[in-house]
Amino acid sequence: MSIRHVTIRLALAVLGLSAAAAQADDASFMPIADLGQANGEQIYQHICQGCHMPGGEGASGAGFYPKLAGDPRLASWQYAAVTVLNGRNAMPPFGLPEDRISETRTVHLSDAQVAEVVNYIRSHFGNTYADTLTAADIAPLPHPR
After folding, report:
1. Residue 22: what pLDDT?
2. Are 86 and 124 within 8 A, CB to CB?
3. Contact at 8 Å (CB) between 96 and 102?
4. CATH class for domain 31-138?
5. Which of 2, 30, 50, 134 is deepest in the core (most CB within 10 A)?
6. Domain spans of the chain, in order of start
7. What are the phi and psi torsion angles at 60 (to 5°)?
């Protein structure tokens, strides 16, 4: 094994340990296994804000991540829910069946979780849509296969 390979392996090991230590020190860190008990705000914080930013202001640079703050398209809960379920542009689908999530390296959100996060983004970041969705509202929408 060359010095370069040893150096790369050592660097990866240090990064892995640093990430694990950061997660252990971060009270807001939630393992994916615990996501099933998360509310809309926690789902947003752990999945969505990495692209859409903590205040929903979106970002651009290496990619384009649309803002959710004051987005008039969110007047349609169906638009928001179908986007979360199926993805849009470069956004991955979060409604994939659980047996397909390894293909996209994303997570599966249940219909109840989709409703939770859609309710959250439609009632935060300057959005004031008051209707509350449930899993029963999400179930008849088109889901990826």
Report:
1. 45
2. no
3. no
4. mainly alpha
5. 30
6. 1-29, 31-138
7. -145, 160
